[in-house]
Amino acid sequence: MLSVRPAGLVFDMDGLLLDTERLIRTEMFAVMAQAGLPMTEDDFAQLIGRPEPASRTIMQAKFGAGLDYDAMRLAVRERISAQWGPVRPVKPGAAALIEQARAMGIMCAVATSSEQALARAHLGHAGLIAGMHVIIGCDDVVMGKPHPEPYLAAAAALGLSPGDCLALEDSHNGVRSAYGAGMPVVMVPDLLPATPEIAAMTQAVAPDLMTVGRWLSDAA
């Protein structure tokens, strides 16, 4: 499914390397319900793959003055930390794919909608940070996903052109970001399926990261 072996892999983090989107959704729904502001699946879907400032704007527009966004966000993090401590669950195949890339001489980066410090902490606790040459957080760019800037910044930091990299994404906004940057992208769906519109922006849609690893091995 990959005709050319990339010089760089640029990973999303939440929902792609770390199985965190489900945790966030579950705890956000619980916190919002306690506040008398129940969310729907469609409400949460709008947040997936977006940086925190954009999520704040969307949530405040939806729920108005009754929402203390900062208090909600803190409560969600505290509930997740109470269950998991500093560690977040790793997606199957994530560590193996990063190690495979290293063995193949492919540079790796992360372009995430999480803040730089948070991304480094989560990747570090997950044992994934050593394989990364570059980490681009939402606070490292002016425009977050779905704008192309995160993937353009990741490619530039790797010293590669976007076309020589491959983006791996689970979200629609992430796919749009990579595609807009001129970077080939494979979607590995998590909470959101690949719609026809989104699939048309990808090189392929993979069921999991193990499949991506096999495609990488087969690429010329």
Short description:
The chain has helices at 21-34, 41-45, 52-63, 69-84, 94-103, 116-125, 149-158, 172-180, 196-199, 209-218, and strands at residues 8-11, 107-111, 134-136, 165-169, 185-187, 204-205. With 220 residues, the protein is of the alpha/beta class. The radius of gyration is 17 Å and the shape is globular.
What does this structure look like?
- The structure is a single chain.
- The radius of gyration is 17 Å and the shape is globular.
- By secondary structure, the protein is an alpha/beta fold.
- Helix 8 (about 170-180) links the parallel strand 4 (about 165-170) and strand 5.
- It is about 45% helix and about 10% strand.
- The chain has helices at about 20-35, 40-45, 50-65, 70-85, 95-105, 115-125, 150-160, 170-180, 195-200, 210-220; strands at about 10, 105-110, 135, 165-170, 185, 205.
- The protein folds into two domains: about 10-20 and about 90-220, HAD superfamily/HAD-like (Rossmann fold, 3-Layer(aba) Sandwich); about 20-85.
- Helix 5 (about 95-105) runs parallel beside helix 10.
Write the layout of secondary structure elements.
Layout: E1 8-11, H1 21-34, H2 41-45, H3 52-63, H4 69-84, H5 94-103, E2 107-111, H6 116-125, E3 134-136, H7 149-158, E4 165-169, H8 172-180, E5 185-187, H9 196-199, E6 204-205, H10 209-218
Parallel strand pairs: 1-2, 1-4, 2-3, 4-5, 5-6
Helix pairs in contact: 1-4, 5-10
